[in-house]
Amino acid sequence: MSATKKTPATRAGSTTGARVVAQTPRRSSTAAIVHLTKEEHVARGRSARAQVPRRSHADWSPAQDRRSPVDILEEQATTRVPELVPIRYGRMLVSPFAFYRGGAAIMAADLATTRVSGLNVQLCGDAHLSNFGGFASPERRLVFDINDFDETLPGPWEWDVKRLAASFEIAARERESTEAQRRAAVIAVVQSYREAMTRSASMRDLDVWYAHADVESLLPQIRNAVGTRGSKTLERNVAKARTKDSMKAFQKLTHLVDGRPKICSDPPLIVPIEELLPEREAADLERQLRGMVRRYRSSLQNDRRVLLERFEYADIARKVVGVGSVGARAWIMLLLGRDDEDPLFLQVKEAQASVLEPFIGASAFKSHGQRVVEGQRLMQAASDIFLGWVHVKGIDGLERDFYVRQLWDWKTSVNLEVIAHKGMLAYARLCGWTLARSHARSGDRIAIASYLGSGTVFDEAIAAFAGAYADQNLADYGAFKAAVDSGRLKAETGL
Q1: What is the per-residue DSSP string for 160-228?
Q2: How far apart are CA 164 and CA 146, in angstroms?
Q3: Alpha carbon of 80 to those of 83, 400, 441, 449: distances in Å?
């Protein structure tokens, strides 16, 4: 049934170029939906371009009242596990790129001061190049996609593009690439995004929804791009990824205690629950966790809930994960199916408010766990069958949101230390295509394609922005390092 049509002028919408944008509200399932014609979508993009020229995206200069990056990191630390915060700082201290990975909140505040077209999509919110990678689809195919959605919210598509582009500039500097090589990598990612969005504008809605990057299908194309040596490295990584599953985690992360598998202790990175709490409190919490599993099941599709019910809770441990995520509460949970040789490892990760919320508005979902899961399902072509969420009371008595997924399921990522320049270009194009496909699923792809156009104006503007923001990131890293050196921040390195 079609919704009631509005006049073309109203339906075409408007753009603002505002520095702080409002989040697109989640529609009620009974709300009327306005359908634009193709021409109206195109007009919407052209109107946005007239109000916010593509060249304007090159601009970057810090606001006069810009907050100190150290202040922002300290504010984030107030909601994290205190003893783990120094590990986070230690990991960010490794390099300017590692600092950038952990500095999503810093860049969110900066992006909020830039002009936007007014065309919103479901954002990843932290679209740097290390948050893309391979994992298993439900059909047991190795697919390439975005794999981190802790900060996801609806917002300006430009923000994801700028964070991704700047990550390539910063990573290329770390590799000591030439200026020409750095620019080529950034241009490759933005051009790929623009061209993919243009192609999606001419595709049927169902074809956009079904589009995905199957790694095996991409291998011939990648071989042509990176040569024999690079393709052999990729093929080894693909073969290795296929072995990285719950059984592999079981072999690596567990040992037998009184004839039953238990998670090994490796403090402070992996700490079983009995080492975090006195015996009686640990036993009480384990009973709560069994109830948590039951509540988590309700967030799954029915067929997957039936599958999960075949598994029984066995053990849980706190685990340190990632760079920017360190300090947020994360657990690994062991469940057993048919017998002790039938494991399922789940990761239960805390979902706090997105770093974008102060600038876009609060999530439409009451649970941040649900916010992450719904955003991931919307942006990914295929998601983990055990992806779900739960609201629980923590060991400190406070209620928190978590999302759940498999710990390892063929997960793999690019190794920046060994990838050659040709490989970096191929990877940049793949990331750009993937981000465009993700945005096209939720946003007005025709309007965005119309805004971007067929020329290189936008590509060059973002390349200029990436270079300027890489300089800003280096200055922020210097301020962060000085705070560590002065003792203001405590960093634990080598963990």
Answers
A1: HHHHHHHHHHHHHHHTT--HHHHHHHHHHHHHHHHHHHHHHHTS-HHHHHH--EEHHHHHHHHHHHHHH
A2: 11
A3: 9, 12, 33, 40
Amino acid in position 440? A
Lookup result for tokens 């209620």: 399
Query: What is the torsion angle, in degrees rounded to the nearest 10, for the CA atoms of residue 424, residue 428, residue 434 and residue 436?
Result: 180
Query: What whole-number distance in Å separates Cα of residue 343 and Cα of residue 49?
Result: 53
Whether the predicted pLDDT of 22 surpasses 80: no
Contacts for 260 with CB less than 8 Å, ≥ 6 apart: 314, 340
For residue 331, list its beta bridge partners: 318, 348
DSSP-based helix, strand, coil % in the chain, nearest 5: 50, 15, 35
Q: Token digits for 269?
A: 């990175």
Spatial separation of the C-alpha atoms in residues 103 and 67, rounded to whole Å: 13
Work out the mean pLDDT of the chain and round it to a whole number: 90
Whether 455 has a pLDDT exceeding 80, the answer reads yes
Q: Give the residue among 438, 403, 238, 250 at the shortest CA–CA distance from 328.
A: 403
Local structure of 464: helix, strand or coil = helix
| Rounded Cα gap, residues 152 and 119, in angstroms | 16
| Cα gap 465→459, rounded to integer Å | 10
In sequence order, what are the residues at sequence separation of 6 or more whose Cβ sits closer than 8 angstroms to the Cβ of residue 302? none
pTM of this prediction?
Answer: 0.92
Distance CA 297, CA 397 (A): 22
Q: Whole-angstrom Cα distance, residue 148 to residue 126?
A: 8
DSSP 26: P
Q: Quote the tokens at residue 305.
A: 């809930």
**Distance (Å) of CA 247 to CA 242, 307, 334:** 11, 17, 11
Q: How far is CA 346 from CA 35, 250, 314, 384, 481, in A?
A: 41, 11, 11, 11, 35
The region, left, alpha or beta by phi > 0 then psi within -120 to 50, assigned to residue 147 is: alpha
Hey, what amino acid is at 404? Answer: V
Q: At what angle do helices 69-77 and 104-111 cross, to 10 degrees?
A: 120
pLDDT in tens, 251-285: 999 999 999 999 999 999 999 998 988 888 888 87
CB-neighbour burial class of residue 40 (10 A; exposed 0-12, middle 13-18, buried 19+): middle
